[in-house]
């Protein structure tokens, strides 16, 4: 068995210290044989602000697009365009914001704009009679401004209304636009169904067999999800909290769902057990890449608190990423032999 997927990495996964500049991240990804890059909007904004004199974010997008091209890197996505659908703010304002993001994505020559599912618990509704027409307007706007751009809708584990891949697929099918599809993320699937940083075991303690629950979800995906609705997949691990998350933990935030705290701080590369990774990433990757035969982009989207230190820079993180991918491929080959 050979894995032919092109591999991307998110810019946030190459370093989070101010000295970890976007050009240095692009160079590191290129040096370490990545094919694509997910560009986080804040990284682009920081690049624009760092120039002397400062430049507009649109000018920055053009410069970064050229830099990626010179390094033979595709821009897989711009992300994250969040809390759009069903929000209580005026739709016209949200569409104005969307226009800006779509224009930036187009200037970057990005293939996708990533849209996490709504997670504002105070200012949103989940009424599909509201959110479907809004997402259709968003898809129509993208088609008008950037006909080649696709919108990748991602069910986040702490989503207010959409928090499973099945939910996101249902929304995609109701929106019914060729440029609107699913982004799958292993972290969100596992954090929603299997893992829990507030328990001693690191697993959900609901009385159910969480291994079986996850297996059933993966089997359902293999059996029922149309591959043409999947735009790309993201892989990461999750670091086990020992002791479990509690109000005294340095990452604790009472206003955050625990899965959001987990996601923003403690997502190492797949199979990095040396950094506390313990999620069943092999099982997820086997279902998606081997059983379902996904051949498109696999992106490594990592949020690792260690990357906030200056010494943990882009080159080292890019090496970590490729090492992780090779380790995962070897495990998949072993599991499939």
UniProtKB/TrEMBL annotation:
InterPro entries per the UniProt record, alphabetical: IolE/XylAMocC-like, Xyl_isomerase-like_sf, Xyl_isomerase-like_TIM-brl
Domain spans labelled Xylose isomerase-like TIM barrel: 28-327
Pfam families found in the cross-reference section: AP_endonuc_2 (PF01261)
SUPFAM superfamilies: Xylose isomerase-like
Protein name: Xylose isomerase-like TIM barrel domain-containing protein
Species: Talaromyces amestolkiae
